[in-house]
Amino acid sequence: MNTSTAKPVVLLRPAPQRRDRIFTPQALAALHELFTVVDLEDTPGDEMFDRHLPEAFAIIGQPDLGAERLAKARKLKALINVEGNFFPNVDYAAAFSRGVRVLGCGSAYSQAVAEYSLGLAIDLARGISNQDGAMRAGSEKYVSESNTDAVLLHRATVGILGYGNLGRSLHRLLQPFHNTVRIYDPWLPPAVIEDTGGIAAGLEETLSSSQFVYVLATATADSAHLLDGPALDLLQQGARLVLVSRAAVVDYDALLDRLVAGRFLAAIDVWPLEPVPHDSPFRGLPNVVLSPHRAGGITQAFHSIGEMVVDDLTLMARGLAPVRLQAAAPELVGRYRNKPVT
Amino acid sequence: MNTSTAKPVVLLRPAPQRRDRIFTPQALAALHELFTVVDLEDTPGDEMFDRHLPEAFAIIGQPDLGAERLAKARKLKALINVEGNFFPNVDYAAAFSRGVRVLGCGSAYSQAVAEYSLGLAIDLARGISNQDGAMRAGSEKYVSESNTDAVLLHRATVGILGYGNLGRSLHRLLQPFHNTVRIYDPWLPPAVIEDTGGIAAGLEETLSSSQFVYVLATATADSAHLLDGPALDLLQQGARLVLVSRAAVVDYDALLDRLVAGRFLAAIDVWPLEPVPHDSPFRGLPNVVLSPHRAGGITQAFHSIGEMVVDDLTLMARGLAPVRLQAAAPELVGRYRNKPVT
Amino acid sequence: MNTSTAKPVVLLRPAPQRRDRIFTPQALAALHELFTVVDLEDTPGDEMFDRHLPEAFAIIGQPDLGAERLAKARKLKALINVEGNFFPNVDYAAAFSRGVRVLGCGSAYSQAVAEYSLGLAIDLARGISNQDGAMRAGSEKYVSESNTDAVLLHRATVGILGYGNLGRSLHRLLQPFHNTVRIYDPWLPPAVIEDTGGIAAGLEETLSSSQFVYVLATATADSAHLLDGPALDLLQQGARLVLVSRAAVVDYDALLDRLVAGRFLAAIDVWPLEPVPHDSPFRGLPNVVLSPHRAGGITQAFHSIGEMVVDDLTLMARGLAPVRLQAAAPELVGRYRNKPVT
Amino acid sequence: MNTSTAKPVVLLRPAPQRRDRIFTPQALAALHELFTVVDLEDTPGDEMFDRHLPEAFAIIGQPDLGAERLAKARKLKALINVEGNFFPNVDYAAAFSRGVRVLGCGSAYSQAVAEYSLGLAIDLARGISNQDGAMRAGSEKYVSESNTDAVLLHRATVGILGYGNLGRSLHRLLQPFHNTVRIYDPWLPPAVIEDTGGIAAGLEETLSSSQFVYVLATATADSAHLLDGPALDLLQQGARLVLVSRAAVVDYDALLDRLVAGRFLAAIDVWPLEPVPHDSPFRGLPNVVLSPHRAGGITQAFHSIGEMVVDDLTLMARGLAPVRLQAAAPELVGRYRNKPVT
């Protein structure tokens, strides 16, 4: 491979992501058109990586990058995480001080997660999967007989925990429902929330005042078991809890107790242990929509990662700023505790 | 019961609807406050009805009202259908010529149907009830493994068949998805559709150009089996068909063939025969969301009927026009072929 | 002219409207294609009108139609007002009892009025025409110096008086501003307003709680001088009053007093006497945007009347209901007191 | 002044901005509550500034900060520009390499500019300030007589040049108008534009296909005289040009020629020389709305700068990332050529 041309060099080592999941053939061709791509997906060991590191303009993936190694990457302008979680195997402080853009792809999933969350909320409101199961079992109830607990989203009170990409994308989808939307996000000043038409509220008020509660918070030390037993007890009788992000935020034992007691309904997409044990008591609950971690990982989301990478590297090669991937905040990049998806 | 007071007389004979399903205690109290209500729900026979007919200001329900009987209702100003379908047991022409408002409650269901339709569409797009069933059976697939066919609603092509109350309510909910929305409604001039941002299109174009197709058409002689085999063959491979209104619009044999062949996915809420036979081959199809006629009949919809009745009778008693119930069109009231729900 | 063909006959006598203002050549051609049009715009006297009346399917315009004359119009199905105001020269009750659709074109103006009203509001908020005048006089002030009173629409409190076509069209345009919108309309039950996200409020609350107040009310006996001195005194210091419809609703002497005193700002498009007298003291007020009755009467609005007429007559000739023009309410048609525009 | 407490030190030297224009008393009190504020607004010379620099956590303003001076600012975490334009008196590269957040306040103006731009567009569409002037001169024309050129915004074609904060804020306000919106921004990949429902287009297509064109571009070497004579000739006859940002983008001689010829209409808020010369030929043009650089600088915008500063410094003092002010892009901060407002 001749990497001595004038094209900037991009090192591609996407693990635990996979090249062909995020790049369509068209996107990969566009990347090769503009860059000298050193594709190391199938190359074990560090030798080739270290050989090309000094000439790298960008790295796609999240290989180990301590300060020493970063010091050798003298031309490096961008470190692009294509998996969604920032691991501690990179010396981010060193990267920032060297002027390396640390870019993440979290926003690629937000439309998918928002649509899925809305679908789960309507399912909880109306019992769609419950009666689909009933029709398959021959026990369905017609017309209003299975609608005794059904409620509208229209003009309902809504709570959103966490107002990052996911929460904002969801909020946009809720516009036509004329909800009263309370938002709890301790990393945001109230004005950010109020400018979008939401109500900045504390956790207690958000939980106790909302018929629908969406959990879309990032896992950090601060948010661990944010929803413990006492917090869950604040939920209204018959509330709908949509639990999409992240399992670490919730005490599942406390959650199970309250669901067994029929206190509220829940749709659950994330689990403390995945796969969920076969004998998990959640599996048989009638007031739950069960979902095996499916909210974000769809083909269009993966492909948008590849397109974002190509678009932003193209801009950066022109001397412009990236606009699609998200710049990691130096203040926050060490706080995230999301586990990588395996 | 003394009905000789100055309050206008309202005859209440809501069958096949039920008084306590549509009137909350508060709404019923408000009705009694303003009107002398002759409640005939539990009074069999016509004697009492005919006795009070000459003094009736309004009738709630749809008792037999031929021209002769209407001629006796000299003070009648409103005939209020609280069930949703106009039966041919009323001489509507005679009612119109006598200046009687014929009012329907169809719009009471439209928000409920629109939300349910959107929920079905997201379910079809993302396999929510399919994987809920899988988790209950212990056969779920995690993360992207069960997402191979998943698609976004965002920026998808959408077709809506029928643009009455239901179609318009749904269209409003779709605004944040930035869809290209084609609408087929042969009763509407294109300008009505285009003013809402939709594209007025023919049936063929709507079916063949849309990833999501919502069937929200009224059953009439013209729309019977609108979706027959050749029409269904226009759908794209992998299209999502949301079938909510009305069963008469679709040829279910042709539909079954194409679903068995895996041509597309469908969510079905209305059925040619209800209850659906236990051995119906639809019950086992993996690419279908099964729903036992549940889209509209929820408590909030029923209660809104009662509120609409009270609001509009209040206006009419003040000499104003009704604004919540829908005035039946003389041109159309004989065309509807929806069967009453039993 | 041979009017004995099978095509339905339409009598066209549009005064005080003019044929060529509402019908584009294309629309007029479409009308002639489907109907035998008896064009009486330039035919004085009643002879020709009365000769064709017995065969008329529809009348476009508002000629004198007493009960006797209507009795001769045995085939008449539609009486289409193309000017905007219902005059008392028609026996509307007789028309209704004969099953004649009485249709109005008021909605043709609503988008134009809504956009103009929003433009006036922004002008009042930001002083656009004031500083345009200043630049023409060489007395402008730059940057923030002329912005001391400037306010945002974003998140402001808004009041709308009258929630017919005009008010609803305006409300839609306000969606992105995240306003708190209070609506006063005594002909509507609160639920109609609340379903749109507005707050149903009384007149006093609407006036005293709103930074921007839009007057879009119909003139009736009830609404005459709705905004008299005491009502205007409820407005906040510095409020913005957008007065578009109708002059009869406001006491202009009281309004002048308060504007001279600098209590609030106003944009005024309707006037008790038009043309406004040359020495009207309104003409020199700095806190007023002056407008000579221009909100609705633009070419696109006029042309949409013609298109609505063609669309609805086409539907009615097919036996369907009209959907674009508005059916006059028998209860209300006699209440309007708007003067025709001359 | 005792700055030895544990509170982080903030140096306040806001020129050319003014402290009391951006901080309300409440905001200033909040700033003092959390920080040791060294207020240098009224302190000439560098002595005090240099004395406090080594302990500064943040600097509000844009004093000269070469690499040498920055090297002394060992605790500096944020350099906050509160005027809107980045001057070249700071060694931004040095700041970035030291991990200093360089934050701008441009977004504070975007709602004000967007609302003003919409107001100008409606004025151009409807002649509001033109007829306000006519009424003051006694030469107004009533009803449709002054509306011959009036057009709706509804469903019009729209072009936006520049899709930064200003363009996006405007685009949100246009949602209810159902426009076809073409957007030209050479710094953005098409996907960013298309995700918002816009059409990513080239300059020529945007100019030639749009009835309304909004100029909201940043001044850079690339955008200088973007709208020269040949570009302006692409505009449609009768187009509406809203020119808000920046004067350097337009060739005003070429613009004047075309306005004198009546080719199109324009609203102009920015000028190559301000104040505009008294004898400027623009001042007398009837097809122009004249505005003395007023789009952004309103009280609410200025106060939001102060609130953004307090909010973000509060977050940063907690170890979190700023979310309201905009992080300057290292790639772009040297490119801007906007002159400071004097």
From TrEMBL, chains A, B, C, D:
<dbReference type="InterPro" id="IPR036291">
    <property type="entry name" value="NAD(P)-bd_dom_sf"/>
</dbReference>
<keyword id="KW-0520">NAD</keyword>
<dbReference type="InterPro" id="IPR006140">
    <property type="entry name" value="D-isomer_DH_NAD-bd"/>
</dbReference>
<dbReference type="GO" id="GO:0030267">
    <property type="term" value="F:glyoxylate reductase (NADPH) activity"/>
</dbReference>
<keyword id="KW-0560">Oxidoreductase</keyword>
<dbReference type="Pfam" id="PF02826">
    <property type="entry name" value="2-Hacid_dh_C"/>
</dbReference>
<dbReference type="InterPro" id="IPR029752">
    <property type="entry name" value="D-isomer_DH_CS1"/>
</dbReference>
<dbReference type="GO" id="GO:0051287">
    <property type="term" value="F:NAD binding"/>
</dbReference>
<dbReference type="InterPro" id="IPR050223">
    <property type="entry name" value="D-isomer_2-hydroxyacid_DH"/>
</dbReference>
<dbReference type="GO" id="GO:0005829">
    <property type="term" value="C:cytosol"/>
</dbReference>
<dbReference type="GO" id="GO:0016618">
    <property type="term" value="F:hydroxypyruvate reductase [NAD(P)H] activity"/>
</dbReference>
<protein>
    <submittedName>
        <fullName>Hydroxyacid dehydrogenase</fullName>
    </submittedName>
</protein>
<feature type="domain" description="D-isomer specific 2-hydroxyacid dehydrogenase NAD-binding">
    <location>
        <begin position="118"/>
        <end position="295"/>
    </location>
</feature>
